[in-house]
Amino acid sequence: MLIKKVFIVVLILVFLTFSVDSLDENDISARSAVVIDVETGTVLYNKNMSDQRSMASTTKIMTAILAIESGRLGCTVTADKDISSEGTSIGIGKGDCCTLETLVWAVLLESGNDAAVLIAEYLAGTESDFAVIMNSKAAEIGMENTNFVTASGLDADEHYSTAYDMAILASYAIKNPIFRRICSSEQYIASYIIPETTETYTNHNKLLKMYDGVFGVKTGFTKKSGRCLVSACERNGTTLITVTLNAPDDWNDHMKLYDYCFGLSDQSNIDIALPERLRIYGAECEWLDITCDDISVSTINNDSVSYSLLLPQFAYAPISEGDCIGKVILLVDGKKYKEIALKADVDIASAEGDSDLNYTLIYKLKNIFNYRMKG
Questions:
Q1: What is the reported pTM?
Q2: Do β-strands 297-299 and 3-13 pair in parallel, antiparallel, or remain unpaired?
Q3: 125-171, pLDDT tens digit by residue?
Q4: DSSP string, 329-354
Q5: 3-state SS class at 254
Q6: Residues with catalytic annotation?
Q7: How far is CA 148 from CA 33, 122, 151, 332, in A?
Q8: Which residue, among 351, 306, 307, has the nearest Cα to 327 in the 3D structure?
Q9: What local confidence, expressed as pLDDT, does residue 300 receive?
Q10: Strand pairing partners for 252?
């Protein structure tokens, strides 16, 4: 069997938590901050990340994702009263009608507190009942030091979270394509049903224009919480979440932290002995050419990177182009990180007259027990 050498390029970011030797504490204005890798959950930077603090309108990340996951974005929502709310408002009055999706845009871009309240009342009846749903979701996704009281993030007794918990929430939310599309948009033209009008929403997140690769997530401010910011940034296939709570200089904090964490990168190669082709039975030809998907991957760890090759000793026709016939499993410090599919490069038809079911079954059963592992 022919063997070809394949180099998988792996972006390895050194696993570091915060220390004054690596990044001076005074360089970051936030009282609490954290940077995590979305794929692995690795903490790259930690400054008081478990301290409980109010988190202002970054709360709306939870409000928005619950609205999206409700499956009712296309449903119409009518305000049965004037929605009065402190702070930022989009001016919802009694009788106003729009879709739930419009309210989500208002929450994530304009940070409308009244829109958040209307979402809560529409989905749960009351804001306090919606808070129960928020806390249930928080527990489900692993936010262990968080308690929601308001849907908007306005200050309330016992309304708190931590930088780390908010990073968990953001990491969860951005995996939803609808949420990611909305939070990364700079503007949106909202169409209202009653009154029949349009409004332009503008994203308050200046990082979208200030730092390459940033695509979200949410700003926040109250006098109690100070400036709060949750952002996400993607580079070379790696996505990081940064959270700062009570940060007077939050824009610069986030840019410094991304420069620092992405700057820890180092390139390394893994040499994989990958067969160019696989023995094929039950066809006119004897060999099946093999191809693979994107061979470049990214991870964040300073430990060893290895791989396992999972491939049968042979395959049996018929096989269609693109069929998965094996995989490369990338391991970081001995733990599974990512799978890369090995696929058939062409269609392989069964040999004419070779259609005996038992013969086919025998070879397919043999395949199950003839996988081999390398690395």
A1: 0.72
A2: parallel
A3: 999 999 999 999 999 999 999 999 999 999 999 999 999 999 999 99
A4: EEEETTEEEEEEEEEESS-BPPPTT-
A5: helix
A6: 57, 60, 111
A7: 20, 18, 8, 36
A8: 307
A9: 52
A10: none
CATH superfamily of 3-10+268-372: D-Ala-D-Ala carboxypeptidase, C-terminal domain (2.60.410.10)
101 neighbors 57 (Cβ within 8 angstroms): no
Tokens representing 229 are: 């910011």
Q: Say how many C-beta atoms besides its own lie within 10 A of residue 187's C-beta.
A: 10
Domain boundaries, the chain: 3-10+268-372, 17-263
Angle between helices 163-173 and 60-69 (to 10 degrees): 30
* Nearest 10 degrees: Cα torsion 183, 185, 188, 192: -20
**What are residue 43's DSSP bridge partners?**
36
Region 17-263: CATH code: 3.40.710.10
- The one-letter amino acid code at 364 reads K
The HSE-up count of residue 56 (CA atoms within 13 Å, CB side) is: 22
CA dihedral of residues 341, 346, 347, 351 (deg, nearest 10): -110
Cα gap 341→339, rounded to integer Å:
6
Residues 6+ apart with CB under 8 A from 51: 31, 32, 162, 163, 245
Q: How confident is the model at residue 13 (pLDDT cuts 50, 70, 90)?
A: very low
Residue 348 in contact with residue 290, Cβ under 8 Å? Answer: no
User: How is residue 54 written in tokens?
Assistant: 């109010």
